[in-house]
Design brief:
Blueprint (H helix, E strand, L loop, with lengths): L6 E9 L2 E10 L4 E7 L7 H12 L2 E11 L1 H4 L5 H18 L7 H6 L15 H45 L2 H22 L6 H14 L3 H18 L6 H22 L2 H21 L4
Parallel strand pairs: 3-4
Antiparallel strand pairs: 1-2, 2-4
Helix pairs in contact: 1-5, 5-8, 5-10, 8-9, 9-10
């Protein structure tokens, strides 16, 4: 079974009063191209995360994100109540001793005082929290791999359909091959009789016709193309990681189809060759998405 390089995975878990999210997306690429966005608390684990992703996903343009969301009550900035009470008492005392009017909006005044609003950040990552976060990362990667397998199955079905179409088109050439040989013979004989108007050595003509027709023979190309179709199917069944190999096989298929077209010398055969090229082009486009 083949795997697609396209995929998406997302996972979430709760730790204490916050939720930990991991999201990973992948597109096709010739090598591993990984970009990460990691919450500050987990940045010390970036190399471990990168290694985990590279081992599992192997190849592709990967975008990874790891972030947290705290519950609203916990995420609110705490107010230092003892400091507020102290500022209130000091300001009231100053007003009484100096005769300055007390503030009309005590809350607005007190909340502007230094250090009344303070936030305590968690600066160290505990082993327990990292264990939860690592599991979230693992689950997101597993989801992406499931996505890749589903996409890979769809690609394999598409490839088989296109390979069947090429094989059917290749078989449809045979009747025109025999017809082409007879037409070539008739055209040459008519040309000799009309243009030269004389007798000719029929044995020598037959030898020349055989030589000429052999140059246009496409049996070898047909056989090699048939072998490539079979090899493509075999390679798909070998497991994942064969995208580049399938691309090489598709290139070889293209060479045989092109050679068949250049030798055909027949309108109907040329039309069939164009159809085969169209089917092959669709294969080449999708092979770029295969792991």
């Amino acid at each position: 079974m083949i795997l697609s390089m396209t995929g998406y995975g997302k996972a979430v878990a709760t730790y204490g009063n916050k939720k930990i999210y991991a999201e990973v997306k992948s597109l096709n690429s010739k090598a591993m191209d990984l970009s990460t966005r990691i919450a500050p608390l987990y940045r010390e684990k970036e190399m471990e995360i990168r290694t985990l992703i590279a081992q599992q996903l192997e190849r592709g343009k990967i975008d990874f994100s790891l972030w947290t969301e705290e519950e609203s009550a916990v995420g609110a900035t705490p107010i230092n109540t003892s400091l507020v009470a102290s500022y209130h008492a000091q300001i009231k005392s100053i007003c009484e001793s100096t005769g300055i009017p007390e503030p009309t909006d005590w809350f607005a005044t007190l909340l502007r005082m230094p250090d009344v609003l303070s936030r305590t950040e968690v600066k160290e990552l505990s082993d327990e929290e990292w264990s939860v976060a690592r599991e979230v990362v693992t689950q997101a990667i597993a989801q992406l791999m499931d996505f890749r397998r589903q996409e890979g199955a769809a690609l394999e079905k598409k490839f088989c359909e296109k390979l069947d179409n090429i094989a059917t088109l290749l078989a449809s050439i045979e009747p025109y091959e025999k017809e082409r040989t007879e037409k070539i013979r008739e055209r040459i004989v008519d040309g000799l009789q009309k243009n030269l108007g004389m007798e000719y050595d029929k044995n020598r003509l037959e030898q020349e016709l055989i030589f000429y027709i052999e140059k246009l023979d496409i049996n070898e190309e047909k056989q090699r193309l048939t072998n490539h179709l079979s090899y493509f199917r075999q390679t798909m069944s070998e497991g994942h990681g064969q995208g580049k190999k399938l691309g090489f096989i598709a290139q070889e298929m293209g060479r045989e189809i092109n050679t068949t077209g250049s030798k055909s010398n027949h309108a109907e055969m040329q039309i069939i060759v164009v159809k085969m090229k169209d089917e092959l082009e669709q294969i080449k486009e999708q092979v770029l998405n295969v792991m």
